[in-house]
Input
Amino acid sequence: MTQTMTYSKTYITYSREELIEKVSSQMSKKRFEHVLRVEKKACFLADLYQVDVEKASIAALTHDYAKERPDEEMISLIKARNFNQELLEYGYAIWHGVVGAHLVKEELEISDKDILEAIELHTTGAAKMSELAKVIYVADYIEDGRNFNGVEEARKLAEENLDKAVAFETKHTLLYLIGKGFKVYPKTIETYNRWVAQN
Ligand code: DGI
Ligand code: FE
Ligand code: FE
Output
C-alpha cells in the first residue's frame, strides 16, 4: 500500500519520492530503514483506526528528521527560538521531536498542525494527543525492526485498542527510564498520568 502511495498535494507540494530523498539525506541508511518501517506500520494503524493515511505517511517519514543534527545546532535553536528553556536540561532524545517539528516546518515546508504535533510528541506522548499522534507514537515503538521484551504484547494491543497500546508503551518507557536512572521529561509524566495511572 505505502510503496505505491501517491500524495494528493494537500499537505506538501512535492511527491512522496521527493520527501523520501529529503529525509534520507539527513540520516544513516540504518535510521532511514527504521523510518520506512514506521511509515509502513503507521499507515496500517491509520487505516485500522480511520486516521488520514496520507498524513500518517508524511508524519512517519518525517518523525526522526532531526535525530542526527549536531547538539550545538539544536542548542542554538532552543536558545534563539521560542522554546521552553528547560529543554536545555535534556538531550537529543527529547530535542529531536520537539525541535524536529520546527525544522520540518521550516525546511520541508509542512505546516499541517496535526502532522507537526505528531512529530513533536512522538517520543514523549502527551496528556492530549490526536489519533494521528497516537498512531505515530505507537508505530515508532512496534515497527517490525523493534526487538525488545514486550514488543509482541505491544503489537497485539496496537491492533486491539490504540489507547491501550499508548498506555502500555508509556508505562514501559517510564519503567525503562527509571531503571536506567535517566531524567524524565515532564511531558512523559503527564502522559503517564493521563494514559496509565489510576486515581
Ligand atoms: O527516535 P527513536 O529511537 O526511533 O524513538 P523515540 O523518539 O521514541 O526515542 C526513544 C528514546 O527516547 C528512548 O531511548 C527513550 C528516550 N526517552 C523517552 N522519553 C524520555 C526519554 N529520555 C529521557 N531522558 N526522558 C524522557 O522522558
Ligand atoms: Fe524518534
Ligand atoms: Fe523513530
Remarks:
- The mean pLDDT is 97.
- The pocket of fe (iii) ion (ligand 2) is lined by residues 63-64, 67, 96-97, 122-123 (CB under 6 Å).
